[in-house]
Write a sequence for this structure.
């Protein structure tokens, strides 16, 4: 080999010829290093005269070298001394070509051996790559299966119906957030703010949905009440002064209606202390001012009492207690409404985050267009 090899340009035929010559040279060197009878002791080294296995032969590549001439000390001719002639068919190999047989005009010379070695190597690489791709596809199939199961489970968990509240609920919710920015909506003097609490605000839009269909221009021809919430103009006017609202109070204004309603709900729950015409304190109890109601709302009948303050429950509201409280607020505020409507208010409040609930859907389908 010359140092100028990489600067010489060869065509394809020259390169193949060079590779074949090097392969033949390596074969001769391997054979020179083998002892007599090496074919039987060196199972992975080809011996002269053995035919190259076919593509389906499981014996491997142990017979890849064909006959040739060798002038070493222990070998001359086609076979080692004492070994069978490879040009004759061995027992059990009928139909296999001999060393110089039908592999082409060149027998099993360097051309055939090089071509077979290259081709067999490529076939095995393709099989391994195919198995890896198949393994990846199996993983992808399993992942896709889990994805489908997850989607189905999510649909089942949410009812799969795609149900939602009427669009007007979203509008009123945004108006509630603005109305609840008024700090004076809390009950006096207790400071309780059930109507605007982070978890209890739905009471405002539930009442609005049931009593006016979320229509700020609603007018009840029987009672004369106007606006979103069940407030008569006289009641709204009485409450408005304590909220520092503009004057006169406008029941058709969503913000006015919601602020007055929030203060009214808080007073119904907590009670209020008023100043009488004689200047003395007048304590008006709320729903939380009796032991029986506290047991229903909190699970405990204990009360907290204080001079000039309405009594209130000592324990916190439970989730079921909140629902019962909303039902009782509606009963006290809308005394003329059927008790079933008060129960509906509790159901809507309890499922404020689950419009797909079957009871909720039944209630929504029964509401008239006006909500009254």
């Amino acid at each position: 080999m010359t140092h100028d090899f990489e600067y010489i340009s060869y065509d394809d035929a020259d390169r193949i010829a060079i590779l074949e010559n090097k392969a033949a040279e390596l074969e001769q060197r391997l054979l020179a290093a083998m002892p007599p009878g090496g074919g039987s002791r060196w199972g992975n080294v080809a011996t002269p005269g053995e035919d190259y296995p076919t593509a389906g032969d499981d014996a491997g590549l142990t017979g890849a070298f064909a006959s040739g001439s060798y002038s070493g000390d222990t070998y001359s001719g086609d076979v080692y001394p004492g070994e069978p002639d490879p040009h004759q068919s061995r027992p059990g190999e009928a139909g296999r070509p001999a060393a110089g047989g039908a592999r082409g005009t060149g027998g099993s010379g360097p051309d055939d051996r090089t071509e077979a070695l290259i081709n067999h190597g490529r076939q095995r690489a393709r099989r391994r790559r195919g198995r890896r791709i198949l393994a990846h596809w199996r993983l992808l199939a399993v992942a896709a299966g889990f994805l489908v199961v997850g989607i189905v489970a999510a649909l089942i968990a949410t009812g799969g119906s795609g149900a939602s509240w009427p669009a007007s609920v979203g509008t009123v919710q945004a108006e509630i957030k603005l109305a609840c920015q008024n700090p004076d909506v809390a009950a006096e003097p207790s400071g309780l703010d059930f109507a605007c609490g982070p978890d209890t605000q739905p009471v405002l839009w539930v009442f609005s949905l049931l009593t006016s269909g979320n229509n700020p221009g609603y007018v009840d021809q029987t009672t004369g009440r106007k606006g979103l919430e069940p407030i008569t103009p006289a009641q709204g006017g009485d409450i408005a002064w304590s909220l520092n609202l503009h004057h006169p109070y406008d029941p058709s204004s969503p913000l006015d209606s919601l602020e007055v309603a929030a203060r009214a709900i808080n007073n119904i729950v907590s009670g209020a202390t008023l100043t009488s015409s004689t200047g003395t304190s007048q304590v008006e109890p709320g729903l939380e001012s009796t032991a029986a109601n506290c047991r229903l709302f909190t699970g405990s009948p204990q009360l907290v009492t204080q001079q000039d303050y309405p009594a209130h429950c000592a324990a916190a509201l439970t989730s079921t207690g909140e629902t019962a409280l909303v039902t009782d607020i509606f009963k006290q505020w809308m005394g003329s409404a059927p008790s079933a409507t008060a129960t509906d208010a509790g159901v809507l409040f309890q499922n404020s985050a689950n419009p797909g609930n079957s009871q909720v859907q039944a209630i929504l389908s029964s509401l008239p267009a006006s909500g009254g």
